[in-house]
Amino acid sequence: MSGAAMQDLTAQVAYHLARRARWRGLEYVFWAAALASVFFLPAKHLILNEIAILALFALSLDLLIGYAGIISLGHAAYFGFGAYAAGLIAKHGLIGEPVLALLVTGLVVALLGFITSFLVLRGSDLTRIMITLGFSLILREVANRFAGLTGGADGLQGVTMAPLLGQFTFDIGGHVAYMYSLTVLFVMFLVARRIVYSPFGLSLRAVQGNALRAAAIGIGVNWRLVAIYTIAAAYAGIAGALLTQSTQFCSLDVFSFERSADLFVVLVLGGVGYLYGGLVGAVLFKITQDWLAGLTPQYWQFWVGLTLVIIVLVGTERLSGWLRAIRRLAFKGQG
């Protein structure tokens, strides 16, 4: 291929990526509505804070499943590790500023994700599922055994958060916590969006579609999978750290299988391989959960399960087709 032809191809790819990365009208509406909720729904800030944290957690798993084809059934391992790391940092006064502590926690969990990625990414999808689940159970048992450090079954208590940026104290109504979590979610979403619509993100799509073909054309498959796994682990760790910082408490529940399983429900509701899928799914899941818990406190999980059964009966392919059609109308030109 001549130099001119290569330059022309490069320009076409750059134009395609720039076109896909262009912001659409409904995206502005979505974030404007999120910002409006800060001012118009003050009584709902506690549940909205949970939604923002769950959305960030779901976004981390979507980066794995939707863009790299890596299935993880123990993603709560990184969520929980981040939660305990942030709690210990605050409890022992290692870092006073919550934002700086959040960044450090993200880097620590990213390092953990990088180290464990070489083990997790070996073998087939079934192997990865079992390894990730086993890793989450191991971390939970470690946290339970070292009760002197983590509080064991009683949870990590005595966590006191310093004022955010030295100015804003975390209040019982969750107002500061929600604004903090929403800001972090937005920033992390922007980073994820940049990753997905970059040449690196495009190569991840190629790896997901056919890893052997991607390797044949010179794409470094293994290192790309390691990179996205590390990034996703950091996202999950930051979500866990937000939970501890906003509630000033951490328990073994952060490692639970149910927390990982909830993510799959969120992604089923919102859509996989679509950055807003985890965000929309988190909103639908938490609002539905809160509504059903108010109607039938003992049996709300039955209705959630029934919804999943209906989705399976209707067919995920059919639902995916409907969602793709809606997205094409709403976000024309954005894959």
Question: Could you explain how this protein is built, in words?
Answer:
With 335 residues, the protein is mainly α. It has a single domain (23-330), classed as ABC transporter involved in vitamin B12 uptake, BtuC, CATH 1.10.3470. The chain contains 15 helices and no strands. It has helices spanning 3-20, 25-40, 45-68, 76-91, 98-120, 125-145, 147-150, 175-196, 199-209, 211-216, 221-247, 257-270, 275-295, 300-314, 316-330. α3 (45-68) packs antiparallel against α11 (221-247) and α4 (76-91) packs antiparallel against α5. The radius of gyration is 20 Å and the shape is globular. The chain starts with a helix and ends in a 5-residue tail after the last helix. The model has no long low-confidence stretch (mean pLDDT 84).
Quick one: overall form?
A: globular
Judged by helices, strands and strand pairing, the structural class is mainly alpha
E-strand count = 0
> What's the story with the biggest beta sheet?
none
Low-pLDDT sequence parts: none
Give me the CATH architecture, please.
Orthogonal Bundle
> Helix-strand pattern, N to C?
HHHHHHHHHHHHHHH
Percent in strands: under 5%
First-last Cα distance: 29 Å
Average pLDDT level: 84
Rounded Rg: 20 Å
* Count of folded domains: 1
Count up the helices. 15
In short:
This protein is mainly alpha-helical and 335 residues long. It has a single domain, classed as ABC transporter involved in vitamin B12 uptake, BtuC (Orthogonal Bundle), CATH 1.10.3470.
